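Technical note accompanying the year-one report. For the benefit of new consortium partners, we illustrate the data format agreed upon in the data management plan: each record pairs a sequence with a structure-token string. No post-processing was applied to the example shown here.
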Amino acid sequence: MTKCYNLLISPQVNFFNDHTKIVLIPGAGDVLVIYIDKQREGTSYLMSDISLQGCASEMVERLRYCKRVLKKVWDLVEEENSP
């Protein structure tokens, strides 16, 4: 089970099964990704660096999940705003 907060500003996805968390903070030309791991230690990355250098497989899975959730939200907003 997950929860999303602040979807229009800085999406934060909490993964309740292992207490990890992803926070996405859009900036000028890049996105800051904060990953809080199972030991509750936070690490910050730029999305452009992740794209070029990769990251841990567990973080990849969570980023893919975030992408799917954000896509669903975007589609719902687009549907509501269409004539």
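Partners are asked to follow this layout when depositing records. Residues 36 and 42 are 4 Å apart (CA to CA).
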